[in-house]
Amino acid sequence: MNTLSKIFLLGLLIMATSCKENNNEPAETPDPGVVDVERLEKEINELLVEDDPDAEVQSMRESADDILKYRIREFPKIWAAIESQPWRLEFVATGSNVERIEDVWFDFHDDYTFEYGSSVGVIGTGKYHYNNDTRIIIMQDDRKDVKPKEFGVTLSGDAMVWVGSKVYKDNHIQMKLGRLDVRSDKLQAAQ
Fold first, then answer.
1. Region label for 112, one of left (φ > 0), alpha (ψ between -120 and 50) or beta (otherwise)
2. Alpha helices in the chain (DSSP H)
3. Which carries the bigger pLDDT value, residue 9 or residue 28?
4. Could you tell me if 44 and 123 are in contact, meaning their C-beta atoms sit under 8 angstroms apart?
5. pTM for this one?
6. For residue range 88-103, what is the model confidence (pLDDT) as tens digits?
7. Is the CB of residue 154 less than 8 Å from the CB of residue 135?
8. 93: buried, middle or exposed (CB in 10 Å: 19+, 13-18, 0-12)?
9. Are strands 87-94 and 97-100 parallel, antiparallel or unpaired?
């Protein structure tokens, strides 16, 4: 699994906190309302170690940089429906596998930047552009070893669905997001 998949599907880490660490020992039954924050932070820190990008990722990133510059220059409108509030990732479907995600959010800003993370905090940042006419969002992570993403977007009230495109080989991914009043990391800090 490449680094982007690991980072982008961070919510799967939360499910991993209930997995066995040693095959000889039974896994403890986790309290469904409690996240092992220490273990999650350790796994996140391991994922945040930047790798050297391969030639294909470098090529995709160069292409995405040019596309982002063009789209931001030619279609500068910011859509409040995307950036007015953070979004919680609820489900990820990859092929026939559907996973419920508990603690991953995206926060899009009016300067074409975005953040993503969990209750532990911000995991990553990047640039994006959303065009409401084409209903396409392109996202370029600030990490040089993470390939860009492009999704077709369907917005309906407090729900958003992303369908991966083949441009960056994401056509096997679909995601459902729901609007959040407050990001889980800010809510956690307030408590």
1. left
2. 3-8, 11-16, 37-47, 55-74, 80-83, 184-190
3. 28
4. yes
5. 0.73
6. 999 999 988 999 988 8
7. yes
8. middle
9. antiparallel
